[in-house]
Amino acid sequence: MTDPISIALLVTAALDACRVPYTVGGSLASSFSGEPRASIDADILVEMPATQVRPIMP
Known about the structure:
By secondary structure, the protein is of the alpha+beta class. The chain contains 3 helices and 2 strands; from the N terminus they run αβαβα.
């Protein structure tokens, strides 16, 4: 899987399942809000205490 949107959705689904607060930034978020950028990346900022790290690891 190399599609940036698919990867971002996979990561955010795991974060949602673990109830980890996050926000998405980068060019992916910028493009969705109407400001296209040349790069294709997603920055995902999470608020995650150590107790929530293990549940999202495969």
